[in-house]
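In line with agreed milestones, work has continued on tokenised descriptions of protein folds. One protein thus recorded appears below exactly as we store it:

>
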Amino acid sequence: MSKRYARFLTAVFCLFLGGLMVWQFLLPDRARSDVENRTLQQRPVLTLSGVLDGSYMEDVESYVQDQFPLRDQWTGLKARTEQLIGKRLFNNIYLCEDETLIAKVDDPTDGLEETNLEYVTQLAEGTDIPVYLGLIPSAAEVWRDKLPEGAASWDQNAYLAQAADTGLPQIDFSAALTAHAGEPIFYRTDHHWTSLGAFYGANALLESLGREPLKEQDFTPETASTDFNGTLYSQSGIHWLTPDTMEYWVEEDGLTVTSWRTGSPEPGQLYDRSYLDQKDKYSSFLGGNQPLCVIRNENARDGGRLLLIRDSYSDALAPFLAQSFAEVHLLDLRYYRMSPAQYAAENGIDQICVVYSVPNFITDRNLVFLAQ
């Protein structure tokens, strides 16, 4: 290569970088990325303390990365290029042959998986109300045969066996989902189960509590959205897959939803359809994360009051359970800091179910509040 040609390439490259810098400077900052479903770093304020402790330069680096021109397009191009050279793991998410995204579950390293089982045991020992433990294996376990050859993911079924050794009554979500593994029980672009998966999960819970299971023919699924791109789509950078279809199965008539988002009761919705116009469509189930939510059904088949100490999987699960229970109380320990045992006693709860997906259960540091 001649020196003149090398200088030309260098000049072109510098002009390209300079142009990107000018472009980034002129563009208004974006508040959030809908593709990545997160808030983006804004222009940091220069302070002496920030310079001295290094936080200012860290914020500048994050700002440049987040506000880079055409960031979403570049990340998608990067993932596509890596796929062409044979890569199958993208930001800890596997791209499977049938264009399904499955999040890898890493081996626990801090012992929290053991500690959280102890917290559930302490809850059961601290109340006279029956306590059941229901751990939902993720798609990485139920759909293990979809993973790329040689793909590693932590053995969730072995952990479920360990949970059973606690002596706590178990809800066998694993058997219920594995029996229907050939069906669309998880979203392809999101880590949650679909309404179909939640239906099978609801029957597993009802049977564990000695109640009659629901019948699939009693429901008429409504297609709520055909363009749902979930959390795995956002995190992986793989933006060329066909979107998921989202369904609502349970009719809202006859159900009353009350939410405690700010400490006071306010009317809620079984399905908050405003989220269907947003990226986070899964939050349309009950309106997403909140400290406490209660679904009441005066015409419930069996009656009684159920408390779910839960993660977001129960947003799709609870509408089915409300067909059997007069009241379903959903308590989220990420936002609710009072004693769950005291809440159950004060609200006439008949059964308590701790229902979490396995990946959330082994990493959630809020389960300590069960031991209050």
Remarks:
- Residues 230 and 280 are 7 Å apart (CA to CA).
- The chain has a mean pLDDT of 88.
- The radius of gyration is 24 Å.
